[in-house]
User: What shape does this take?
Amino acid sequence: MKVNPPKWANRFLKWYCNPELLEEIEGDIYELFERKILKGQIRSAKRRFIWDVIRFFRWSNIKRSNSQNKYTNNTAMISNYFKTGIRNIVKDKATSAINILGLALAIGCAITTYIFADYMLHQDSYHSNKENIYQIINHVDSNGDDEMWSDAPMLLGDELKANITFVDKMARVEYGSGNLRYEELVFNETLWFSDPEILEMFDFPISSGNRKVLYKKNQIFLSRTIALKYFGQDPAVGKQMSIKYDNGTIQSYFVGGVFDKWPSRTSFAPSVLIPIDNFYDLRTKELNWSYLTDGIFVSLKPGHSGHELNEFFPQWVQKQNDSDPEFKTNSFEPIVFSELPSINYKISSALVGGGHPAGIIGLSVISAFLVLLACSNYVNIAVSSSTKRLKEIALRKVMGGTRSGIIRQFLIENILTCLLAVLLGVVVSYFFFLPGFNSLIPVEMPFEFSSLVQVTLFFIGLLFFIGLISGAYPALYISKFNPVNIFRGNQKFGRKSLFSKILLTFQFVIAFSTVVGSFIFTDASIQLVQRDWGYKAENVVAIPINNEQQYAGIINELSQNSNVVDVTGSFGHIWAYDKLTTIRIGETTIQSHMYETQGNYDEVLELKMLEGRFLEDNSDIQKAVINERMVVNMNWNDPLSEHFYYDSIRYDIVGVVKNFINDDPYSEAYPAFFVSGKEEDFNYVVVKAKEGNEKEVFEASREVWRKVAPDDPFEGFYQAEVMDSFYQENNANIIIMTFVSGLALLLSCIGLYGLVSFNISRRMKEFSVRKVLGASLLSISKLINNDYIWLILIAFLIGAPLGYIQVIQLLKSIFADPPGVSLSPYILAMAIILIALFSTIAAQLVRVARSNPADKLRNE
Amino acid sequence: MKGSYLGELEELVLLTVGALYQQAYGVSVMDEIENQTGRSINISAIHSVLKRLEAKGMVKSEMGGATSERGGRRKRIFNLTSTGKKALDHSMEIRNQLYGQIPKVVFNFS
Assistant: This one.
């Protein structure tokens, strides 16, 4: 048996030793080693060898410089790698296109996700003072849990300003609402009562007016949108407007200024800004520490930082606790403005920032999966396509190419391919993915990045990550081959590669699970859309009203309108105003929605009676109609003989209606009851129009409204449209799911296509011989399919249940009352995948079938 | 003259190179010293001494022919130069001279 010295020691010697001395040194060490071996002292020989190698590691023997010409040689080689790389990409157009396209699609997703995350996490970053502005967050004890509230005691603002010398400016935001009126135009607007310093603290862009106007109590500041709504292109500054507040007070104001268009990524944006003194005027009671405003911001003088505020807080925490034992403040925490967007999901009713990170995380995971899919495609195709390049590799090795040189070559080629893919990915993201994504979400994200450094790092990282992940295995694998074996032609290779099979299976597991998942999800979503509302919303117009005069006026006018079938009034209205009350049934109390209606409310909305009758006008005192859910919750067999107490009045049940949707279809129906209402309490008029005439009725109601309530905005709506926003969201979900699963399927098919086409071209000669000898297309297709059918089957068995489990979890987390899952999405998903796979393989089979065996065999 | 000074090990190696005429290379020098003196010296030490001697011009070297031993690696064969010979003569002379100056009475140990 031939004994070799320890490999690593030898490699170490070769690495450090000056090449001019290497031969003699190595020779001497070997001679000593062999002498010991001959004596049979193998272990001691090895030890001795290692010891000698270490002893030779001295200054005089170590190579100290890489000679100059080695460097130039490297550059030449690297430029050669680039040239070979480009030639290879151009030469094998189909494979390169598959590789680059697959990667580009995945990269496009990654870039779009990055833009989304960047957009969400860097909102409101244009305020130049953002590092020096702090929001005072209120840590509130809620049944033992510490919650972060944006709402903080209003009086805290005054205290901060008065007692802390290094507080420069302080601004509170107090939300309100009111009917803003200019001449004939009246709309209900969200109002921001705020300290005048808010304009000096933040860099809100201003198109007219100046940052001092709010110090005058009767001046207001409007957003550009609001100014356009009331004044169009006319200058707004100086115009007189009036606001009717919720308590009926009417105040008049002058427009002091108008904001410019908000920069993109703005979440913190006032609509109508009013000096806070107006808020104090509206209060009838004295303000105390239990009154919470919606947010307090302070900016500090230069050289101070937020944590210096902490020592002042305990006294105010105490004051708050004394005045409000219900919601006790644990502590106040100053949070710097620039960090608010990234933690806004933790803060309840936060004023600044995008939203919950679930969306970002979900999209990132999806993009990562797609990138991995594309990478595994690339690995598979790269490994199998290198069969064509075996001779090149062998020749490089024979000419003195080292293994590391070949690895470097393949990695450089890879990064070149990835560079093309990244460029194409940017194009795909810019022209398709981002606009597509924007059309599904409520905001419009521009194709831009908050920081140049970060985005450069992101792209370089993406490039090298994908380049190395996808290139490492092929490079390591191919560079290992022995040139002699390659030239002899007996390099066994690629045929039974377990690795590529695992990769392919992994791809299909992902494809199957996403496709199955998306089908179940879509199925559930469609079921939701089709869910019966429990009443007929078509042709119904509902109008919120404020008082009895308005009610009487509208009813009078509308009942004479020939387009109107029926008019009713109610306190509370399905979906729009569902008052939550507590009722007592025997010993138990339950929560229930309550509607006080006229007797024909059920006819106007076509509520479906299951038992008994609906209410009758005026005569039905102390009678109630309940919904199915209450019957089920109470386990009543004969609900018509039951009764309940509300406000200590006994109500006998006279009828049961079918459940109706009064929230969104995600949530399950809630107990509800109807009782007879009085006209003076009504806050809704509900009109049923003649089939197809609801527009006329809507316009007629608007006309009537102008006469009966000139000071209030008309807020009528079509009952059929109340769930449109839900449908849009639902549709967006369906589209995103379908898109992702489609992309996963596409990527897997691209991978399969590449692999099959490669295997077929490798075996073309074999197939030609078979054809010449009379093999049918069927038997050849069996040969090809055999390799893949098992993989696909295994992938299906793993992937389908996986997708099912994931989506059921998802559905459970979204829907309180998940719709049933039928078998059809499974079958559909399976059919689609199988069709996709077999058409992929079939496309290749056609190539075999069409080819003339003579052409292939004549070559050699 | 600083360059001509010979250390003890250097002198020993130089002598061995001379004695092994045409056969002197790392391992053989090491073996010969071990045989003659019983001193076991690491091969790397021999190499650095030989290199030092060559730098002082006392030995010259050339690569020998390839053989099947040592995995086909060639040996570097060292030979004495005239400078080396002079240095040996010089140190020998000094020794002899000093030895001759030792009074006979010193050797009388009985």
About this structure: The two ends of chain A are 44 Å apart (CA to CA). The longest helix of chain A spans residues 724-762.
